[in-house]
Amino acid sequence: MRALFLFLRFVVVAWAVVATWCLYALTQRYKSSRACPYSWRWILDNLGRRVVHPLPQTIDSFRVDRGHTVLEVGPGVGYFSGEVARRVGPEGRVVCVDIQPEMIGALRQRLLREGVTNASPMVGDALGLPLAEGSVDCAFLVTVLGEVPDRAKALAELRRVLKPGGILSITESMPDPDYQFPDVVRDLCHASGFQLLEHRRRLFGFTMNFAAT
Ligand SMILES: C[S@@+](CC[C@H](N)C(=O)[O-])C[C@H]1O[C@@H](n2cnc3c(N)ncnc32)[C@H](O)[C@@H]1O
Fold first, then answer.
1. Strand partners, 200
2. Using CA positions, which residue lies closest to atom 4 of ligand 1?
3. Closest by alpha carbon to 176, among 9, 40, 73, 11?
4. pLDDT, tens digit (0-9, with 9 covering 90-100), for 70-127
5. Which domains does the chain have, with CATH numbers?
6. Protein residue closest via CA to atom 12 of ligand 1
7. Where does ligand 1 bind, in terms of residues with CB under 6 Å?
8. Is the previous residue joined to 177 through a cis bond, with omega within 30 degrees of 0?
9. How far apart are CA 123 and CA 125, in angstroms?
10. Is 8 exposed, middle or buried, given 0-12, 13-18 or 19+ CB atoms closer than 10 A?
11. 35 CA from centroid of ligand 1 (Å)
């Protein structure tokens, strides 16, 4: 009981420290690029993240399925990528597109270490996805949309590469300095030809799933 209490106290204190740091970062970051810097990669995979975004439950909400071709935009260092690749199985494929070569380099190493062979990391921009029209069953973005300077253009690109009826899954989480509020995500996606299927509220954020119409 005491150990549980100490653990919960640690989680709350750690979250408060990260939140304070992110608020500070928010005031600093737009001096340079909008994308989460590679030097901040530690924030993408740690104990607190595993509490806020437990892998199995979070991935359940993306609606990826066996055999799917899945696009992950902004994978960072690949917190979700390997597990999603395992979910789609050998007949499926995960394409991971990130604008920062350092993130893709780290992701490539991680996938090699984990023995994942059905994921393809590539450097690319959400504003011009290196994929053919109607080639993807499911696309997901976790704390990425707010970093993209032209969100409507990125959503139009996602609409282009998704098959009709394909799933777009967007997860946002506080205290991300680029956090996008649910109303904003919903309105942007509606305007880009997506239909809301579900809105899952979670600890410190949400996942919204849309169908490409
Ligand atoms: C906050 S990190 C999230 C990483 C990962 N989704 C996760 O949850 O661990 C945002 C990622 O999006 C990438 N990103 C930002 N703008 C992008 C763009 N225009 N196209 C592709 N990736 C982008 C960044 O390089 C960074 O790796």
1. 207
2. 76
3. 40
4. 999 999 999 999 999 999 999 999 999 999 999 999 999 999 999 999 999 999 999 9
5. 2-212 (3.40.50.150)
6. 74
7. 35-36, 44, 73-76, 79, 97-100, 103, 125-127, 142-144, 147-148
8. no
9. 7
10. exposed
11. 6
